[in-house]
Amino acid sequence: MSKAVASETPLRTTFRIRLNGDTVSIATVGQAYRFLTEYSKIEWMEFRSLYGDALALLERAADDAMLTVQATDAVRALFVSSKLL
Prior knowledge:
Elements: E1 10-19, E2 22-28, H1 29-38, H2 48-63, H3 68-81
Antiparallel strand pairs: 1-2
C-alpha cells in the first residue's frame, strides 16, 4: 500500500466537490489520493495523463511536504478538466 493513502500532509487548499448530492472535502494528500484511487481507473481514462501526474505527485508529496504545491496544482488541473470544480 502506498504511503500516500495515510498521509496527513495538508494540501495548499481544501477542495470541496459536489458528488452524488453530497459535498466532499479534500484537504490532505491522503484524502486526495484515496478519492482518486477509490473510483475505477476507467472513470479517469479520459484524463489519463492528468490522473497519472496527480497520483505521482501525491505520492511524492507524502514523502516530501515541499511538493504539496505541485501536488495541489496537479489535483486542481485534474478536477477542473473533469469538471468536478
